[in-house]
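Section 5.1 Outputs to date
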Amino acid sequence: MIKPIEITVKDPAIFFVNIYTSLVYSIYYSFFEEGGVDSMDVRIDPQTGPDHATIIRFIDTVVKHIKVRGSKALAPLRMSIKKGILSMFAALIFEYPKFNLSKHEYARIDTVIDDLSDEGKLLRGRKREQF
């Protein structure tokens, strides 16, 4: 029980992944579960979960609302968003017993992320320039 907490505290990479996953899940929860869905007139089946169109709208909303700190107006890393989405998919599979997306729907989500990168809303590459 104490070992996972110890690993998280001692390893900065694990700490970052835990914080980022928590952030993505909290945004997901507030977007889908706590009233955001009702105001958009979107219904989520309690067995299958959100469809790919709702997930795409969620990704677009998250990317638009991320504020990056620092003197330069940098965008978040594309790789970080993709890892957060993979964590979200794991949570959706756990939460909704029949959640399943087709290969075409996964490809569509990847295309949206690539489009956001092309628009400059996400940065490609391994790391950002240091401040």
